[in-house]
Write a structure and sequence with these properties.
heterodimer; A: mainly alpha; 3 strands; elongated; B: mainly alpha
Chain lengths: ~100, ~230
């Protein structure tokens, strides 16, 4: 998948958090608490993912006395993209030699 | 409600009000979350962060006739409440440059005079086009989706025609205005700096969509949806 999304550590953090429970709808504030990202960082990432069709959004059904909340979930493309990107990150982390590598 | 919480709510309401049509839903989503944050100060931090959404301006999705009508309503709402930014900025620029030319003429060299004259002429052109762009036809008074679709398509066609006619040089004029300002700076390197800046901008202009193309694409999207839904174009 060739997407023009900046693969920042924050984006990977968000993708990884969605992959924790792939089928669950997530709220913005809960995502913010789980990832430690502030709203001003989290939402532009969510918006970019949605613009690329990787994230679907929905409004919660209104419950009496509680306003409906906006919810987010990765699409099938998003799940594929998320798995690929987090795998790439893991490989990069393993392949990166500690302290610049030690020649034997 | 405590003052800090009230401030957080006010800020997020403002963000919803000012968000571009493509961001409205996101701004509303952000605003709703404020009510679910226990700490008042954290809610305030969240609301301040939501202002960053205002910096994004993604295109409004146009997938069906209802969304076109919605885009039309948002477009009309934004036009009525948002000041004509381009017009105001360029009018200020024009005033500033004319002021320099009139009152500092004797203290400037030829290059500076030429620079400020180019900047003033470009600003005048941009102000005229900006004013024409900001004007809007009569908005429909009823709630009928058909009327709003017709209104929105009409506005997009008018802008496409403006930017492929009189306003065709709009992006070039922005570059010339900045180049003129650059030429007006004192210093021996400014001609080289101006030439380099203009050359880089002209190359960049080849890479970006020009306004007429953007509006044409929007008209095409609307026409495709209208054809698919069996409405007359």
């Amino acid at each position: 998948m060739n997407l023009k999304i900046r693969r920042s550590p924050q984006t990977l953090l968000v993708l990884a958090e969605f992959l924790e429970d792939e089928q669950a709808w997530r709220y913005g504030y809960d995502m913010s608490r789980a990832t430690g990202l502030k709203s001003g960082t989290l939402y532009p990432i969510l918006m970019r993912l949605a613009e690329h069709g990787l994230l679907e959004t929905s409004w919660e059904t209104a419950v009496e006395g509680r306003p409906p909340r906006h919810m987010y979930k990765l699409t099938q493309d998003g799940l594929r993209y998320g798995r690929t990107q987090t795998a790439v990150q893991r490989v990069a982390a393993i392949g990166e030699p500690a302290f610049g590598g030690v020649g034997l | 409600m405590r003052p800090v919480r009230r401030l957080a709510v006010r800020i997020s309401e403002k963000a919803v009000e000012k968000a571009s049509p493509g961001c409205k839903e996101w701004a509303e989503g952000l605003a709703r979350e404020v009510e679910f944050i226990d700490s008042d100060w954290r809610a305030l931090g969240w609301a301040i962060g939501s202002l960053r959404v205002l910096l994004r301006n993604p295109p409004v999705p146009l997938r069906n006739a209802e969304e076109i009508a919605r885009a039309g309503r948002l477009f009309a709402g934004n036009r009525e409440h948002v000041p004509p930014t381009i017009l105001l900025l360029t009018a200020f620029q024009l005033f500033d440059n004319v002021d320099r030319l009139v009152f500092r003429w004797g203290r400037m060299d030829h290059l500076q005079r030429a620079g400020f004259a180019i900047a003033a002429a470009s600003a005048a052109y941009l102000a005229v086009v900006g004013w024409m762009e900001h004007r809007m036809g009569k908005r429909p008074e009823d709630m009928d989706d058909g009327a709003w679709i017709e209104f929105y398509r009409g506005e997009m066609v008018r802008r496409r025609d403006l930017f492929s006619g009189l306003g065709i040089l709009f992006p070039v004029a922005i570059v010339l205005m900045c180049a003129g300002e650059l030429l007006g700076i004192e210093g021996s390197t400014r001609p080289y700096l101006t030439v380099c800046f203009t050359a880089v901008c002209m190359v960049l202009l080849r890479l970006v969509s020009w306004p007429a193309e953007t509006f044409q694409r929007k008209v095409d999207d609307i026409d495709t949806i209208l054809r698919q839904t069996g409405r007359s174009v």
